[in-house]
């Protein structure tokens, strides 16, 4: 669902107007949280459409070298697999 930036800004303005007219600090805080959420959506949407992404560090994966170790043999075991019961 694509919502235009203009509609989002209009909604932010509406919420800001309601916050100015609110009669309690709790209501003002609620409107501010709603405005913040709309702003975050706009920023995330803009970043996604432009193709901005967080850089990922380039590193080579190194496989650890393990010495050849003989598996432990148990008399009660049914097989070599962990899933053999």
3D structure, described in words:
By secondary structure, this protein is an all-alpha fold. Helices cover 51% and strands 0% of the residues. The protein contains two helices and no strands. It has helices at residues 5-21, 25-50. Helix 1 packs antiparallel against helix 2. It is elongated, with a radius of gyration of 29 Å. 0% of the residues are buried. The model has no long low-confidence stretch (mean pLDDT 77).
> Helical region count?
2
Order of helices and strands: HH
Content-based structural category: mainly alpha
Percentage of β-strand residues = under 5%
User: What gross morphology would you assign?
Assistant: elongated
* Radius of gyration using CA atoms only: 29 Å
Report the oligomer.
Answer: single chain
Main sheet properties: none
**Mean pLDDT, all residues:** 77
What keyword list fits this structure?
single chain; 85 residues; mainly alpha; 51% helix
Concise account of the structure shown:
The protein has 85 residues and is mostly helical.
């Amino acid at each position: 669902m694509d919502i235009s930036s203009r509609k989002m800004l209009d909604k932010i303005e509406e919420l800001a107007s309601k916050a100015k007219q609110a009669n309690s600090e709790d209501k003002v805080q609620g409107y501010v949280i709603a405005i913040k959420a709309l702003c975050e959506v706009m920023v995330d949407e803009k970043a996604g459409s432009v193709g901005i992404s967080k850089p990922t560090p380039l590193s080579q994966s190194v496989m650890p070298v393990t010495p050849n170790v003989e598996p432990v043999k148990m008399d009660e075991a049914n097989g070599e697999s962990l899933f053999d019961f």
